[in-house]
Structures are given as structure tokens and as C-alpha cells.
């Protein structure tokens, strides 16, 4: 059976000692598994993990630009026959499909197994753990780590030059609503994190993304002018019912933006412009029929609320 040797460093934390090293990705793919309850390591990866996520990692590695510096955390199993040699500076282990149980980094290891390229991967190896210790470390890792908020990821995507054209447009529109003194949402937006009684970038993007096709070739400034007039008109109607504070509720905000194409079409047909007064005239039937509780207690379905708002806009036809 093939043996592998790598230079290591010993680290002590609390009651635990572990080794840090780097291992080629293809060796990790051959020696790691994800569940002590699974007889087949390959099937274990495929059954327990998200193949699409693993494939995206493989593609990221294969494009030649990828870097994943976060360590894979492993627990050496008896099959590894792990030994520390060379005055404690080298680890030796057997190449066995159940040499190491993955405690953290399962999708990365699975992605490495699907990649065509080889990369050196930072690894932490615990040795001599029992099942209780392995389970406790797994739980600690997966409960103590806090993911980066999606709001922050959206906020810095432009710095990383990772934005799509649509994401760039939405960022520019949001930034105008966030900073322009005439913005109907001034003081009501939060760019990089969730904040109580404010509209996050994630909520804003999910609201506006479905209607970007209605903007045609207009730039962010033009879209802001039109949408700001619309939101100002809508909030004026809400203010008349003393419910304008509910605009920051994600269900309410998404429903308000969802009906924008419907309102804008009727506004254009009747007034040939998109100023606030024109929007207010189109929205007036809505606020004369609107039940306040539909806004103050909107539930979780923005689509249901949007359909209700459109129903409220309907007027009796007269010649």
C-alpha cells in the first residue's frame, strides 16, 4: 500500500494537540471520507453532500485562478496507520480510502476529487480521537463559525470585480437610494448588514432583480429618478394611513416593487410621464380600498400581497 510523508508542525490548543501541513488535493480525494456510518467513501460523498456545490469548487480550482486557503480538518483513522517520524517533524500515513474522517471542509474535499488540477491544500490532522471527541469537534466547528452576511458580500463584490452587469446596476441604484438627499428611502437602507427597520442590500436586490427587464437600456440615474418618484408616491399613500413605517418590512417592500411594472404601465398610458403626482393619481384607488392590517401584518408571501395590491387598484369602468 502506498505511503505518503509530509512535513508538519505540532499545535496545542486547550486539551487538544493537532498537526498542520499541506497535502496535494488528489491525495486528499483518495484518503478522506465523510461519515463513519458509510461503508463506501465515494458513495458517502455523493449521498451526503451537494454535488453542484462540489462541482463549482472543482471548476474554481480548474480555472487556474482559484485559491482556497482555509484548512481542511481531519481525524486520522486506524486505517491511516499514522506515524510521526523525523524527530516529530514529519508525518507518515498509508493511502487508504478511509484514512481520514473529514470534520470540516467536506465539500472542498469532494470538489478536489472532481477537479482535474492538483493544488496543495492546508490541512489540520487530529490523531487519536475517539468518536465522542470527533463528534464534539464537528459540532463545535459547525456551530461556532459564523458565515459572512450576504449583505456584506454584495457590498464588496464590486471591489473583487466579481459583479455581473445586473449586479452592478442594482448596486448603483441601491447606492443612489442610500445616499441621495431626495431619496424616498434616505435613512431607511443598510448596505453591508441586516439592520432592524431598514432595507438591506439583499432585500433590495431580490426586490428589483425581477423587474430589471422593464428598465430597458436606462442607466442607474434614470432608473432611480423613476423608481424614486414611484416609491415617494407609494409612501405618501401609506403616510395618509399612518403605515409608512412598514415600507422597510421585506414582504411589504418586495410587494411594492413587484407591482411597479403594473403601476408604471398605467401611469405611462394615462400621463406619458413618471413623476410623483402621476404615480399618486394611479395609486389613489389602492389607498382608498387598502386594509391597513394587510400592510402592518403582511405575512411572508410578497406575491400574495402584491396580488392584493393590484386588486385594490381596480376601478369600476364607466364610459
Low-pLDDT parts are 42-47
Helix content: 40-55%
Q: Roughly how many Å apart are the termini?
A: 90 Å
Mean pLDDT: 86
Alpha-beta content class? alpha/beta
The largest sheet is:
6 strands, mixed
Our Rg estimate from Cα atoms comes to: 28 Å
Count of individual domains:
2
Strand order of the largest sheet: 2-3-9-5-8-4
Q: Can you count the beta strands?
A: 11
Tally of helical segments: 14
**Percentage of residues in DSSP E strands:** 15-25%
Shape: elongated
Q: What is the chain-wise order of helices and strands? A: EEEHEHHEEEEHEHHHEEHHHHHHH
Provide structural commentary.
This protein is α/β, with parallel strands linked by helices and 319 residues long. The protein has 2 domains: 3-144, no CATH class; 150-313, no CATH class. The chain has helices at 25-31, 41-48, 51-62, 106-114, 131-144, 150-156, 165-179, 201-208, 220-240, 250-258, 260-271, 276-289, 292-296, 302-313; strands at 3-7, 9-13, 16-24, 32-33, 72-76, 83-85, 90-94, 100-104, 120-126, 189-190, 199-200. The strands form 3 sheets. It has a 6-stranded mixed β-sheet with strand order 2-3-9-5-8-4. It has a 3-stranded antiparallel β-sheet with strand order 1-7-6, with no helix packed on it. A hairpin with a 2-residue loop joins strand 2 (9-13) and strand 3 (16-24). Helix 9 packs parallel to helix 12 (276-289) and helix 12 (276-289) packs across helix 14 (302-313). The relative contact order is 0.09.
Amino acid at each position: 500500500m502506498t505511503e505518503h510523508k509530509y512535513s508538519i508542525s505540532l499545535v496545542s490548543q486547550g486539551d487538544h494537540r493537532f498537526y498542520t501541513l499541506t497535502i496535494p488535493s488528489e491525495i486528499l480525494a483518495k484518503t478522506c471520507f465523510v461519515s463513519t456510518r458509510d461503508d463506501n467513501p465515494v458513495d458517502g460523498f455523493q449521498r451526503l453532500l451537494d454535488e453542484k456545490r462540489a462541482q463549482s469548487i472543482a471548476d474554481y480550482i480548474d480555472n487556474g485562478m482559484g485559491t482556497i486557503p482555509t484548512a481542511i480538518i481531519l481525524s486520522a483513522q486506524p486505517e491511516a496507520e499514522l506515524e510521526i517520524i523525523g524527530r516529530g517533524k514529519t508525518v507518515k500515513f498509508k493511502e487508504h480510502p478511509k484514512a481520514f474522517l473529514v470534520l470540516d471542509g467536506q465539500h472542498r474535499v469532494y470538489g478536489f476529487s472532481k477537479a482535474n488540477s492538483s493544488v496543495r491544500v492546508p490541512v489540520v490532522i487530529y490523531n487519536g480521537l475517539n468518536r465522542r471527541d470527533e463528534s464534539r469537534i464537528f459540532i463545535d466547528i459547525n456551530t461556532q463559525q459564523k458565515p459572512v452576511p450576504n449583505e456584506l458580500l454584495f457590498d464588496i463584490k464590486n471591489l473583487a470585480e466579481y459583479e455581473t452587469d445586473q449586479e452592478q446596476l442594482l448596486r448603483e441604484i441601491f447606492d443612489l437610494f442610500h445616499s441621495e438627499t431626495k431619496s424616498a428611502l434616505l435613512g431607511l437602507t443598510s448596505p453591508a448588514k441586516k439592520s432592524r427597520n431598514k432595507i438591506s442590500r439583499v432585500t433590495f436586490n431580490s426586490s428589483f432583480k425581477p423587474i430589471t427587464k422593464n428598465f430597458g437600456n436606462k442607466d442607474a440615474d434614470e432608473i432611480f429618478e423613476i423608481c424614486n418618484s414611484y416609491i415617494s408616491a407609494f409612501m405618501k399613500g401609506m403616510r395618509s394611513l399612518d403605515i409608512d413605517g412598514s415600507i422597510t418590512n421585506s414582504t411589504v417592500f418586495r410587494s411594492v416593487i413587484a407591482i411597479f411594472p403594473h403601476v408604471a404601465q398605467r401611469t405611462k398610458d394615462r400621463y406619458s410621464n413618471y413623476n410623483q403626482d402621476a404615480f399618486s393619481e394611479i395609486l389613489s384607488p389602492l389607498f382608498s380600498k387598502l386594509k391597513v392590517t394587510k400592510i402592518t401584518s403582511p405575512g411572508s408571501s410578497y406575491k400574495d400581497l402584491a396580488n392584493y395590491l393590484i386588486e385594490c387598484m381596480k376601478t369600476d369602468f364607466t364610459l
